[in-house]
């Protein structure tokens, strides 16, 4: 997961919101306590979100097409499982068409794992119906449009049967990192395979080039190679840039970077 910048919403979303909220309020008046049938008109925002997220799932950072994937509601719209903070079930239906509550997520992250989970810090106050976030609510799940996930989750190599795997861990014991990894199962087997393959196929070959330059001893050549490989691997349009960042941080340790005066930048927005 990486920090994302939200662009502008399509004006169509505001029209869908007005109409959708009128429909839901009428349904609540007519049948209080009944489950709401929420129109899926929020899908008008899907392409904009997909572009803002560089064509990637907001959670697992794999490249995905909009087609069979989802507009994800950070605060779940119908029902919300807020454990361990509180387990009230009604969701945040009034945020169904709220731009800042929407993300683009792959079907695996959204439908198989996040579902209606929205854990809160114990003892915090749940938003009241109609109230805009964040209020006094303290989500344990990271929102890549508000938080910098790299400060909460880091990837480290784990050796299993003499093979190198890359695994996400909470950075410095971050409870929000731990919850996000657990809720989204960012350590699920298919992702672990992608992580392993990514470091092997993309990161390590670039580092071979860097090591060659280091052996040559020419500082300018080393700096140039580093610039090239970081702008390639940390370009946010590439998949798994948070993993690339941590793999570089681990495989070219700080002391070595200091020696060669190399700076490791966070994942980089595309050059205009
Ligand atoms: Zn995903």
**Class based on secondary structure composition and strand pairing:** mainly alpha
Instruction: List low-confidence stretches.
Output: none
How would you state the average pLDDT, rounded? Answer: 94
Q: Main beta sheet: strand number and arrangement?
A: 2 strands, antiparallel
- How many angstroms does the end-to-end distance come to? 23 Å
Task: Determine Rg (CA atoms, Å).
Answer: 21 Å
Contiguous helical run count = 8
Provide the helix percentage.
25-40%
The distinct bound ligands, ions and cofactors come out as: zinc ion
The order of strands across the largest sheet is 1-2
**What pattern of helices and strands is seen along the backbone?**
HHEEHEEHHHHH
How many domains make up the coordinates? Answer: 2
Organism: Pyxidicoccus fallax
Protein name: HNH nuclease domain-containing protein
């Amino acid at each position: 997961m990486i920090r994302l910048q939200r662009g502008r919403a399509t004006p169509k979303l505001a029209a869908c919101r007005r109409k959708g909220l009128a429909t839901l309020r009428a349904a609540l008046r007519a049948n209080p306590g009944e489950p709401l049938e929420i129109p899926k008109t929020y899908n008008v925002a899907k392409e904009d979100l997909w572009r803002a997220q560089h064509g990637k799932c907001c959670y697992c950072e794999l490249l995905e097409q909009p087609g069979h994937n989802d507009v994800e509601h950070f605060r779940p719209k119908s029902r919300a499982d807020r454990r361990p903070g509180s387990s009230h079930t009604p969701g945040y239906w009034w945020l169904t068409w709220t731009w800042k509550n929407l993300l683009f997520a792959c079907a695996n992250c959204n439908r198989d794992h996040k579902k209606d989970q929205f854990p809160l810090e114990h003892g915090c106050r749940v938003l009241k119906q109609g109230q805009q976030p964040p209020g006094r609510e303290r989500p344990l799940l990271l929102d890549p449009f508000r938080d910098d996930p790299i400060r909460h989750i880091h990837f480290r190599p784990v050796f299993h049967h003499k093979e190198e795997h890359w695994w996400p861990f909470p950075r410095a014991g971050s409870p929000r990192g731990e919850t996000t990894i657990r809720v989204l199962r960012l350590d699920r087997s298919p992702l672990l395979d992608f992580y392993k393959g990514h470091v092997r196929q993309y990161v390590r070959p670039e580092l071979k080039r860097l090591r060659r330059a280091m052996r040559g001893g020419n500082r300018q050549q080393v700096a140039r190679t580093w610039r090239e490989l970081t702008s390639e691997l940390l370009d946010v349009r590439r998949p798994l840039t948070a993993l690339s960042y941590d793999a570089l941080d681990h495989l070219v340790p700080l002391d070595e970077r200091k020696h060669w005066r190399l700076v490791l930048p966070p994942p980089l927005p595309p050059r205009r």
